[in-house]
Every structure is written in C-alpha cells, then in structure tokens.
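The material for today's practical consists of a large collection of protein records. A record pairs a protein's sequence with a compact description of its fold. Instead of coordinates, the fold is spelled out as a row of discrete tokens. We will come back to this pairing of sequence and fold again and again. Here is such a record, shown just as it appears in the course material.
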Amino acid sequence: MEQPHLKIGLACCVGIAACSLILLTGPEPLEESLPEEKPRVSIGKFVRIVVANTVTAFGVLSPRQSLQLTTQVPGEIAWVSDDLEAGGQVAEGDLLLRIDERDYAIAVAGAEARYAQAEANIDIEEGRSEIARLEWAAWQENLDEDLPANPLALRAPQRAEAVARRKAIGAELDSARLTLERTAVHAPWPATVVHANAIVGQVLSVGEVTATLFPLDYAVVELQVPLKTVRLLDAGIDRIELRPVHDLKTPPVVGTFEGIVRNLTDDTRLATVRVRIDEPLGHEGWAYGMHLEARLVAEQKRAVALIPADLIVSGNLIWVYRDGRAQRHQLYPVEIQGQTVSVEDNFGAGDALIVERPIGLFDGARVDVAEM
C-alpha cells in the first residue's frame, strides 16, 4: 500500500520542480502596447457639379396605332401589290389590292343609263308643261276670262315627280360609283406591313382582314415611372434620350414628350410617361416590339458629387475625413457613367474624400492626413 502513495508523491514533486524551472528560466511576458502614431490616410477634394435631374425608365417601342386592312365590298381579288407582304413598306395612297370590278362597273353603267333616262323624262315633262301653258292661255283668250291656272292642268306634279326620280337615280349612281371605287384598296398612310393574307383569286367577304399595317410616321413608348420619381419632372423635361437595351453604347435617339398619365390601377402603382419617336424604323436596328432604355433629362437642377467607383465599398459607403477622424459615409447614387458615380451632394463643407487608407481602419478613428 505504501508503494503507490510513494509513486504519486514523487510525480507531484517532479511536476512542481518543472513548473518552477519554467517560471524561473522562461521569456518575459509580453506587455500590451498601443501604437503611439495615428493611422495615416491620403485625402482628396470632392468634385462637385450641378447637373439636371435625370430619370431612367424602360419601355417597349409600339406603333401609335394598328390597322386591320379590310374590304368594304365583297368579291374576288384580281390583283395584289408586291409590297403587300410581311416586312414590306408602302407609301400613303399606294394601291395595295384590287377586287374584280366588272360587276360593279356594270352597275355603274346601268345607273348612268337610268340617270340619263330620268333627265330625258324631265325634258319631256318640261315640253308637256309648256304645251299645257299655251293651251291654258288660248282657252282663257277664247273665254275672255283671266282665271288662275290649275297646277295639275299645267303638269306641275308630273314635272316634280320626274325631278324627284332623277334625284333618286342620281343617288343610286353615286352609290354605284363609290362601290366601284372601293374595289381598289389603298394605303391610308405610310406604313410597314406586319401581316398579309391576300392572294389573287381569293374571294373576300365584307370586313375580312387582308393585312395588318403599322404606321411609319411615328411610334410611341410608354414608360412606367414611380410617382415619387415623376415629381422630378414637374418642372419640365429638357430632352429624352432613348437607346436599345441590347446596345446602350449606340448614339441616343431623341424623343418628344407627349404627356404623363397619372392613372394608377390595381395592377400597377406607377405613372405612365408617353414619348413620341418620329420615323422609328428609320433608325438602324430598330423594330417594333424592341425594349428601350429612356433617359429623361429634367429642366430642374441638382448638386452632385463625382465619386470614383473603386472607392465605394459595400452598402454604397465611402470613407471621408471629417473633424480629424475617418468616417464611413452613406451614398445615394444618381447616375453611373463608366468608372465614375454621381451621388447626391450630402457632404459637409469641410469633408474630404479618403482615397488611400490602411487595412484595419475602424470607423471614427483619429487619423493623420496626407494631401494628394
């Protein structure tokens, strides 16, 4: 029983001796020391400018209207223009198709003959009326009396009937000529053909669609803009620049402001800004249905600061030198142009931009500065 106790006692003595040796011969403990010098940062001046308020929005190039080309008279298609096909372009007044006009030409000829007959009947009645007046005068002379003439005796009703008959036939003739004219279908304005379904020999009924036309003179883009953003445009719009979304580096096309539709629906809480674009298909690569980016430049101005993009850290923050300290500052971007970001100028008069800083700098630390 004594041997185990002896072993334990020896082990404890050896451990105590080893610890004492380490404490006596070990290195001196490190003492906490704070750096005597403050961190050094490099600063630069803010570039401040005044720019116009801008609003960026997106929309789709749409025709100002869409025409379903139909016929007003039935019949067989006798001729179709080569331009009346999808992708074709037509000028105002161009003949697009013609319906067989023979039946309508016959109707016009018949109406013209009836009209000529009605005119002849009027001439006949005028002759009869003249004879009746002469007979009435001779009868009065024989009786030596001056009695008023009876309109019926002078054939006045018969002449009035002939004149009314000519008027009715004249209306029929006008209708027949108009119907004949409608066998030729013309373009109402310069247009591009989106869809065509007109074939020679095809028999059409009244109102049947033969093509779909979009106008070439101008198109519209409806931009959806939040009401809060629309307020930036209340002072007026200086210009509107539009670019295709797929090629934002192309030179902009200038649009014309048409109006703001401040009508909110259950589907959207956005206002609609309508922009007009003259001769949209005259711009290279443009087509109806394409998506556009619009930059609306307002007449109202605002102060902004230009910040290099590489100085912005996560959360739209930058480091500024303010009252002897390095502080992180919240940015509110306005526009990005290449490697420069325009932000709202919410900086103090004595603030400076920190362009170089040591790693590990904490917010609010006192720093020394070096001008750049």
